[in-house]
Write a structure and sequence with these properties.
There is one protein chain. Helix content is about 35%, strand content about 15%. The longest helix is centred in the first third of the chain and has 31 residues. The chain has a seven-stranded parallel β-sheet with strand order 9-10-8-11-12-14-15, sandwiched between helices. It has a four-stranded antiparallel β-sheet with strand order 2-3-1-4. Strands 5-13 form a two-stranded antiparallel ribbon. It has about 500 residues and is of the alpha/beta class. The chain folds into two domains: about 120 residues, no CATH class; about 325 residues, Peptidase S8/S53 domain (Rossmann fold), CATH 3.40.50. The termini are far apart. Strand 16 and strand 17 form a beta hairpin.
Length: about 500
């Protein structure tokens, strides 16, 4: 009996020790995979932005990248192939092998033999896949796997920095109308309002040579309001005629709006409506502001919910809009008054694609309510494939109160009264009969897109490089570049003569 008791005690000790070792092993594993807090991830981001102006997620410490992914719904965006292989209309065996190898690494570390459990999307054009992951080891092995261009937490949207209030809390959204100071417009035939800053860029004189006819401008923004008829059924109002406007949606709400009673390609923010107005509002007979290229066509995409591309679905929406505009032979200019603080892989791939299709891509340099001088031009305006624009005041080269500047800026547009920061550029409002002021690098970008349409309409057989060169030659500092304002203010008359 005593021997049996000793034997049972021994077995109990063995089991207890084994259980304790298992707990230690589990604890060690848990420690290895301990999530960094959002605050800790943001500290890494702030350091990267301060030191380099971008965030290199691919080579970040594995636990930082892993934590950002887990705080972003567990979604990993993985670009594969060689550094310059952004997209492929027909993939080589090498590219396919690189993709499948990366997926296999993820499957092995995630403990599954079913690809469908982790593969969220395999893009048909861009060399990128999206994976649902949960293990730190997946990141660790992928960071040392050949044939991978980038690894990014595409769903991470928690970055906040009190020193860099990027856009407003509403992210640029405002549907309210405003009263316009009578000194900020001139009435022209047939009864349209010409915004005050057009004179400073000789846009009104340029109309004697070109009004944008025959050119289609692509707009990627928050869509166009269904309540603004001058950007809908009355797009051919007054002196504007023979042109078309199309509205599409690639933001996630847009693709299933019929069955869910959502607004699809229609603006629910207000920002996209004002950008469309600045580019191509008709030269109307209703006492409303006229756009720069008032006879151009427009193809507008609701690719994002607001101006800040901090959401997984917005990043997908913008990427898809760029792809579709890139595929359209009628689109010459693409206007993007949207962006983010660091580069986003799938959007970068899409910009490269649209650029390869000879599109002139004009992007906003950045608009913040408060920011320190350490931050310059935002993405994608920071890319060499885009034309970066910012806004200045009417008292010389002083950036607007909320505009970014930097050596990546190519052009500037006067869009703010130095005497009153609230008096910017009059545009159509969200609803019929509404007008409003719009400022920042956003309206500067849309204005530049309109001027580019004037030039291309004047010279329809020109290449993108010829149009861009003409814009440079017609700017104040040409042939020199200012360190913060590029070639400076564009003279639209000179550009079309």
């Amino acid at each position: 009996m005593k021997k049996i008791s000793l034997l049972l005690m021994g077995l109990f000790l063995v089991v207890a020790c084994t259980h304790e070792e298992a707990q230690l092993t589990e604890q060690d594993s848990s420690t290895d995979q301990k999530l960094l807090s959002v605050t800790e991830v943001n500290a890494f981001i702030k350091t990267q932005l301060t030191e380099t102006g971008d965030v290199d997620w691919t080579h970040a410490p594995s636990n930082v990248l892993y934590s950002a992914i887990m705080h972003g719904d567990g979604i990993l965006s993985l670009g594969y192939g060689q550094p310059e292989e952004y997209f492929s209309e027909k993939r080589s065996d090498r590219l396919i092998q690189a993709r499948e190898n990366a997926i296999a690494v993820a499957m092995d570390n995630e403990g599954t033999t079913d690809k469908k459990e982790i593969l969220l999307q395999q893009d048909p054009l861009f060399n990128v896949v999206e994976l649902k992951i949960s293990q730190l080891s997946t990141i660790e092995e992928l960071q040392s796997t050949a044939g991978i261009r980038y690894l990014e937490p595409i769903g991470y949207a928690q970055f906040k920095d009190p020193d860099l209030a990027f856009q407003k809390s509403s992210s640029g959204c405002d549907q309210s109308g405003q009263s316009i100071n009578s000194a900020d417009y001139t009435v022209i035939s047939p009864n349209a309002w010409r915004p005050w800053n057009y004179d400073l860029h000789n846009i009104d004189d340029a109309w004697a040579y070109s009004t944008g006819a025959g050119i289609t401008v692509g707009l990627i923004d928050t869509g166009i309001s269904a309540n603004q008829p001058l950007l809908g059924s009355r797009f051919n109002d007054g002196a504007s005629n023979g042109r078309s406007i199309q509205k599409h949606g690639t933001f996630i709400d847009s693709s299933w709006w019929w069955s869910n009673n959502l607004d699809g390609p229609n603006d629910r923010c207000g920002h996209g409506t004002t950008m469309a107005s600045a580019i191509a509002s008709p030269r109307n007979d209703e006492a409303m502001p006229v756009g720069v290229a008032y006879n151009s066509n427009m193809v507008a995409f609701r690719g994002t919910e607001d101006v800040l591309l901090d959401d997984y679905h917005e990043r997908k929406g913008v990427s898809d809009a760029l792809r579709q505009l890139g595929d359209r032979s009628d689109v010459r200019v693409i206007s993007m008054s949207i962006g983010y603080l660091w580069s986003i892989g799938n959007i970068k791939d899409a910009v490269k694609y649209a650029y390869s299709r000879n599109k002139l891509i004009i992007a906003a340099g950045g608009t913040s309510t408060t920011f320190t001088n350490w931050y310059g031009v935002i993405f994608p305006a920071s890319m060499s494939e885009t034309v970066a624009v910012t806004g200045v005041k009417d008292n010389g080269y002083n950036r607007c109160d909320i505009c970014h500047e930097g050596d990546a800026i190519d052009f500037t547009i006067v869009m703010q009264r130095a005497s009153d920061a609230s008096r910017t550029v009059p545009t159509l409002g969200f609803n019929a009969g509404d007008r409003k002021y719009v400022g920042g690098s956003s309206v500067a970008t849309a204005t530049t897109a309109g001027i580019a349409a004037l030039v291309w309409s004047r010279h329809p057989n020109w290449s993108r490089s010829q149009v861009l060169e003409k814009l440079k030659q017609s700017s104040e500092f040409y042939p020199y570049r200012n360190s913060n304002f590029g070639y400076g203010n564009i003279d639209a008359l000179q550009a079309v003569q």
